[in-house]
Structure formats: structure tokens, C-alpha cells
Automatic annotation (TrEMBL):
Phylogenetic placement of the source organism: Eukaryota, Fungi, Dikarya, Ascomycota, Pezizomycotina
SUPFAM superfamilies: S-adenosyl-L-methionine-dependent methyltransferases (SSF53335)
Keyword hit for NAD: no
Gene Ontology BP annotations: methylation
Biased composition (Basic and acidic residues): 154-164
Domain of life: Eukaryota
Region Disordered, annotated ranges: 144-164
GO molecular function: methyltransferase activity
Keywords, in A-Z order: Methyltransferase, Transferase
Pfam families: Methyltransf_23
Protein name: Methyltransferase domain-containing protein
Residue stretches in coiled coil: none
Species this protein is from: Apiospora kogelbergensis
Length: 327
């Protein structure tokens, strides 16, 4: 019986990426129908614009579900409560604070955590609420898989100490303009008007004022936050090195990313096979990136505290890294 249950778990784990691609694909017809209805034929004829709007429709639906699953890792990470890839009760280091660069901010899934309201609420011992905390069913998806203690959706019940510091400025880098309306709305709802600035370009154009009319100085950033974004950026190795330059000495890079599977040739081959299809459904997201290695090589770090969440077993097609790099 135990063997049967294990076989079933492995099978479900292996088909999980296909289910996720199916979910993303199911948003395509509705996107096309809406564009035809709105007579936006130009968008229909532009593959990149069509891809952006399709992804944005899907992500607007999926992001609260991701939050319910991945929030049990991401929120402790930003509060300084992770070590060795594990979530811990007491802060293991500082949480986010100061000037923040949020990479691939999407539709603002994590924006409320940057707000003073969130800080006051959690300092007072209150529950930190998620946008998706009411009326959203948990979808167990490969991007967000959490099968450890606490369980998906346990964010609401969390009432732990955190080492979050006041946030003074956030640059939310998000090139997909179709996601901006919700990102802007959530920043406003979080009370971050005047603090949260949307940078409407990819991270590769961050230092190009001609592209977005602003500038972030190298060496001026206290924290970089990358949640499931480095899988989507172009020239990742070079751009990660470039981003390292934006951190102050002592600055921290908080990372929750899915990465290449390094052990077991069978799963590596399977991950490479899934990756033949995956980027076409998920806005160009790549499964087989050695992101931890590229982060380590980006420049000298004073401290690296990163690891793989324990509950991700050998059959997970999207293993994650969770942790903090300190410059
Ligand atoms: C998987 S989504 C994650 C969004 C958000 N971090 C979240 O957790 O909900 C990846 C995001 O990276 C963004 N992205 C793609 N290319 C990018 C680039 N070159 N620079 C910055 N962000 C990028 C995508 O538009 C998308 O919003």
C-alpha cells in the first residue's frame, strides 16, 4: 500500500508540469476571443504582444494561488526567517528593508509585504494577510509546490517574529505592461504610493534611462528580491552579474527561484524534455538554469545562506533554491 502511494505520488509529480502547461494553455482561447471582440487585431498579429497579454491573463488568475502555496516560503524569506533553504521560527538574519529592487514584480503578488502596514501588523503580532487569502482554492502546481509542514494556505495562521526593516523605496521591474494595472493597484492598496515605482523594462535595460526615463544608481540598493523571475530574464549569467553591481556593500539578494536539477540523469533528462515545451506556455520561463551557480559567481559575497527546501524530493521537475546572498 505504501509502495502504491509512493508510485502515485511520483506519477502525480511527473505529470504536474503538463497539468500546469494545460492550465496556462486554457487561457489562450479566451485571450484571443477578447482581443477579437475588442478589435485589437494588431495585438493578435504580434506574437510578442499576444504572448504578454496571454501570460498576464493567466498570471492574474494564478498569482493568488501561487501566493497561497509559495507564501509559506517567500514570506519567511523576506522576513529573514530562512536558513539552509528551510523556514525557521526565529530570524536567522535581517529581513528586507531600505531601497529594494524587485525583479519581475508581475502583478504585485508580493507587494504588500513591502508596506509599513504589513510591518506594523506583523510587529503587533497580527496575521499578515494575503491578497488571495479569501475565496481562492489551493491549486497544487509545480511552480509553487509546498508539501511540508504548515501546508499550502497556512500563511494566514503565521504569527512569527520577523526581522523586516522599514522600506524606503521599491523599484518594481516588470517589462510586461499588461501586468502593470494590477501591480499599480496593489501598490496603492498597500499604501506604497510614492514609494513603489514601476520600472517598465526588463532588468537588462535598468541602466538605460532612454528606455524608461529613470535611473537606479549602481551600489545604491539595499535588497534585491527575486521571486520566480531569473528563469525568465535574457542572458541570465551576464545580467545576474550586472545586478550584483546595484547592491551596496552589505546589501542582500533574497532569492526564491526554480532551478536546473543537478543530480540524477533521469530527472535531468526529463526536465530538459519538459523544457522543450514549457517556455512556450509560460512566457519564456526556462527550467534548466543553474541560477545558484550564476549567483555565486556574480561577485564576492560575504555570506551565502541558500538551500533546497527539504520537501522537494528527487521527482520534482522544478526544484527551488531559497535563501539570501549578502554582499
Ligand atoms: C513567473 S512570473 C513571477 C512574477 C512574480 N514575481 C510573482 O511571483 O508573482 C515572472 C515575471 O518575470 C517577468 N520578466 C520577464 N522577463 C523579464 C526581464 N527581462 N526582466 C524583469 N522581469 C522579467 C515576467 O513578465 C513575469 O512577470
Amino acid at each position: 500500500m505504501a509502495l502504491l502511494a509512493q508510485i502515485q505520488e511520483i506519477f502525480l509529480s511527473l505529470i504536474n508540469p503538463w497539468q500546469f502547461m494545460y492550465l496556462a494553455a486554457s487561457w489562450f482561447p479566451g485571450t484571443v476571443i477578447r482581443l477579437v471582440r475588442d478589435r485589437k487585431f494588431g495585438v493578435l498579429l504580434s506574437p510578442s504582444q499576444l504572448k504578454d497579454i496571454w501570460f498576464s491573463n493567466f498570471w492574474d488568475w494564478f498569482a493568488p494561488r501561487l501566493r497561497l502555496n509559495a507564501g509559506v516560503r517567500v514570506i519567511p524569506l523576506l522576513e529573514g526567517r530562512t536558513t539552509g533553504g528551510l523556514v525557521v521560527e526565529e530570524p536567522a538574519g535581517p529581513g528586507i528593508g531600505g531601497t529594494i529592487l524587485e525583479l519581475g514584480a508581475g502583478n504585485g503578488n508580493w507587494v504588500d509585504i513591502f508596506s509599513d502596514k504589513y510591518l506594523e501588523q506583523s510587529r503587533a503580532g497580527g496575521a499578515a494577510t494575503a491578497d488571495g487569502s479569501s475565496g481562492v482554492e489551493v491549486v497544487d502546481t509545480t511552480l509553487a509546490t509546498h508539501r511540508g509542514g504548515g501546508g499550502a494556505g497556512s500563511e494566514k495562521k503565521e504569527n512569527k517574529k520577523n526581522a523586516r526593516e522599514p522600506v524606503t523605496r521599491v523599484y518594481g521591474v516588470e517589462p510586461n505592461r499588461d501586468l502593470h494595472a494590477n501591480l499599480r493597484r496593489k501598490a496603492k492598496e498597500a499604501g506604497l504610493e510614492g514609494v513603489y515605482e514601476i520600472v517598465p523594462v526588463g532588468i537588462e535595460d535598468l541602466d538605460n534611462p532612454a528606455k524608461w526615463g529613470g535611473k537606479v544608481e549602481k551600489g545604491s540598493v539595499d535588497c534585491i528580491v527575486s521571486i520566480l523571475c531569473l528563469c525568465s530574464i535574457p542572458e541570465p549569467r551576464d545580467n545576474i552579474r550586472e545586478l550584483y553591481g546595484y547592491l551596496k556593500k552589505g546589501g542582500r539578494w533574497y532569492v526564491y527561484e526554480h532551478v536546473r536539477r543537478d543530480e540524477g540523469w533521469g530527472m535531468r533528462a526529463y526536465q530538459s524534455f519538459v523544457n522543450l515545451f514549457w517556455p512556450h506556455f509560460l512566457g519564456g520561463c526556462q527550467l534548466c538554469r543553474p541560477t545558484e551557480q550564476w549567483l555565486r559567481e556574480a561577485g564576492p559575497w560575504e555570506k551565502i545562506d541558500v538551500g533546497h527546501p527539504l520537501e522537494e524530493e528527487w521527482h520534482h521537475t522544478l526544484p527551488h533554491i531559497l535563501g539570501v546572498f549578502t554582499k
